[in-house]
């Protein structure tokens, strides 16, 4: 059996999986996507003093502003998660979570750490896909404001979400001179390009979901590290952020690549 036959079998299996899970997949995608915000919001409550002291020391902004920062992160993330999961005011919730991502990127100096910046951008890609899904009915985000849910804009939002999502996988490429790393990098690069171009998108995205889930369980096993060690929190943060990107990929599978993709052009 040639490569085309193998790909055909894989596509048939993916389509069968999607038919069976089509009523559940969007809900699972939403839960995974907001998981990092949910975890971080809860973390803000239990580590309020540590977070406040870090911001106050790093920015010399005083206790009042540092407490306000923690409060905004706690309420903004938990409220955004509740709204997304309940499917109420989803566009506003997405914009609020975008603001939280931008705020944390600046406050925690992620802007200067390429790896964490790319992961935050990948997380933003998932939010962008969620925002595009919420505009599928073409309704306005705010009363009295013209709708931004036009098909053209929605397609470009899906394109932007795809391109941002693949940044997560670029942080996983090793470029090391051994057989396993070379194979992993080659396969990963091919899958990244397929998603970015929107070619055989659902199959490529499902494959990335599987790959990323395995790596996440292996690399970010925070439960195996005692809670008092700093590594525990670091791995926990990484685990849930990666889980959120997985949710973005599942949402991509559920929504499709959009009109600005090679898959869409094949239908013309």
TrEMBL record:
UniProt membrane topology term: Multi-pass membrane protein
Subcellular location, principal: endoplasmic reticulum
Keywords: Endoplasmic reticulum, Membrane, Protein transport, Transmembrane, Transmembrane helix, Transport
Pfam families, per database record: SURF4
Record localization: Endoplasmic reticulum membrane
InterPro entries in alphabetical order: Surf1/Surf4 (IPR045214), Surf4 (IPR002995)
Keyword Repeat in record: no
Residues spanning the membrane: 64-86, 93-111, 181-199, 206-227, 239-260
GO cellular component: endoplasmic reticulum membrane; endoplasmic reticulum-Golgi intermediate compartment
GO biological process: Golgi organization; protein transport
Cross-referenced PANTHER family: SURFEIT LOCUS PROTEIN, SURFEIT LOCUS PROTEIN 4
Family listed: Belongs to the SURF4 family.
The name this protein goes by in its record: Surfeit locus protein 4
Species annotation: Eptatretus burgeri
């Amino acid at each position: 059996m040639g490569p085309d036959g193998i790909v055909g079998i894989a596509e048939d299996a993916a389509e069968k999986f999607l038919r069976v899970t089509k009523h559940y997949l969007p809900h699972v995608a939403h839960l995974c996507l907001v998981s990092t915000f949910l975890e971080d919001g809860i973390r803000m409550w239990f580590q309020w003093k540590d977070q406040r002291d870090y911001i106050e020391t790093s920015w010399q902004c005083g206790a009042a502003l540092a407490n306000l920062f923690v409060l905004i992160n706690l309420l903004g993330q938990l409220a955004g998660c509740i709204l997304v999961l309940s499917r109420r005011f989803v566009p506003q919730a997405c914009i609020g979570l975008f603001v939280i991502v931008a705020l944390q990127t600046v406050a925690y100096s992620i802007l200067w750490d390429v790896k964490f910046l790319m992961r935050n951008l990948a997380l933003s890609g998932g939010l962008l896909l969620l925002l595009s899904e919420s505009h599928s009915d073409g309704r306005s985000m705010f009363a009295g404001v013209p709708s931004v849910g036009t098909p053209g804009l929605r397609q470009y939002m899906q394109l932007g979400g795809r391109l941002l999502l693949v940044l997560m996988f670029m942080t996983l490429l090793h470029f090391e001179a051994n057989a396993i790393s070379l194979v992993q990098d080659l396969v990963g690069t091919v899958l990244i390009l397929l998603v970015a171009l929107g070619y055989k998108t659902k199959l490529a995205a499902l494959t990335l979901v599987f790959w990323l889930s395995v790596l996440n369980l292996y690399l970010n096993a925070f439960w195996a590290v005692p809670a008092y060690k700093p590594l525990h929190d670091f791995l926990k943060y990484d685990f849930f952020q990666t889980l959120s990107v997985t949710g973005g990929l599942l949402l991509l599978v559920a929504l499709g690549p959009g009109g600005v993709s090679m898959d869409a052009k094949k239908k013309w």
